[in-house]
Amino acid sequence: MANTSIQVSEKLLEKLKKRKLYERETYEEVIEDLLADVSELSEETKRSLARAEKDVKAGRVHNLDSIKKEFGL
Asked: Which sequence spans correspond to the domains of the chain?
């Protein structure tokens, strides 16, 4: 195993601390879990995300204010 140090902001450090499942879990374990979560996206989810990105780029989105206005809220 290679030992190395990485620099992270205080904000990111706090986020990593909150992701620990137990007190003695290492940050390496936390990061491994995060990477596993990302790599486990199904093909269907990946396709849905790609469609959503295209919709956003094409302007086919509605913000909360416009939806409230449309429904009179």
From this structure: 12-17+25-70
